[in-house]
Amino acid sequence: MDTDDPLWGALDRVAETPTLLVACAFDGALAPDEGDPAEARAEQVSSEALNVLVALADTTVAVVSDRPRDEVAELMFLSGAKGGLRMVAPEGLDALRDEVGATALVAVGVAVTGTSADVIVGVGEELGAGAPYEVEDVDEVGELLEELAGLRRSP
């Protein structure tokens, strides 16, 4: 972790929040947004990090997509049996935040208006416009999620 990087510092801060909601766009953040959308698969590193986050207490993971839930579930490598995993359309994110009582949100590739407690991360040029933090591509999303999972599970 680069402690001088503002994004890594923000992740360090948000990892300590009592109730965390992690929301990631499927297309363009978890899976590359190129080629045939029906062939898009979530990157393994991101899926593994999300599985860790799903298993943590007081942590909810949302995969955000306009695609049908069943389709997204087939394209992910997630353990859906755990209670912390949700599939939501972009317009359902605020309601989910209220439902789980999230004290902070980490949103990756999702256009949301956050609070000062939140970490909003854009991905690349298309999904990164206007976000306070930005990563270059799905590989960097994986790194970000791994870092967050490690910070969140540390005592």
TrEMBL record:
It comes from the Bacteria. This is Roadblock/LAMTOR2 domain-containing protein. InterPro entries: HAD_sf. It comes from Actinomycetospora rhizophila.
